[in-house]
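Inputs:
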Amino acid sequence: MSLTFIDNTRFAVGPNSQVSVSQFQYDRTRQTGAFVTQVDRGSLAVVSGKIAKSGRDAMKVRTPNTLLGVRGTKFIVEIPK
Amino acid sequence: MIRAGLTAFLLLLSGCASSSLVLLPDDEGHHGAVAVLEAGGKPTEAVIADSNSRTKLGATAPVSRPLGGKGLRKDEAALLGELPPPARSFLLYFEQGTATLTPQSVAVLTALRAEIATRTGPAVEVIGHTDTVGSEEDNDKLSSLRAEEVLNWLAAQGLDRSIMSAVGRGERELKEPTADKVASPVNRRVEVIVR
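Outputs:
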């Protein structure tokens, strides 16, 4: 499953994954916002968009044992069973 | 008591054994970074900045290892292959004071339609703009008219209106900064973003 957010962030969610967006705020005019995603199980590929660029750690990803601050990049988070 | 202890131990074990991060350069080859703000409930200041690396998460001082010759695992490569294509933006220009496309921009409509057709589950954002000729209020209306003109054309081509949105921003976001009451063909535009 894959999707593109309005700030151009792109996600691909792996099989048998549990991923939730706990916060998504985006000001289309100013192109700033806040984005928090929780990955509890499985895998998530991310290409960050304008929110991540809008401020330091404006985009965060939470896993069961860490909180990550995304600083403009492409990455995969994996939480195997 | 023992069972509770065992469960806690197993939870702890599964928590530690698991999360990992693969950091990659983006499609333009830019190298980004991911900060570890918290690990195991403790704040950290670690930053993972080595592109093409794999990092086990959970430690306050995580160690990144290069992906090396083995590269990505099959499932990781497959997951990356599933990422949607990057958003693409199209610019259409208008005749002065109207919602009539310039002849050159009519051709862009065809390219726009083709791009939408290549995507699964597309979403289309249409944003209208004007130059600074006329009042702010009139330009708000004109920019909306321009955006709707493009949206209506796409709808007439069979595109579902529910996947499209149109908005006018008047003369607030000039492509070419000008004084008030200045005609500018570059500013009389509609931007269409396809995701």
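Remarks. Helices of chain B lie at 2-17, 74-81, 103-117, 136-156. The longest helix of chain B spans residues 136-156.
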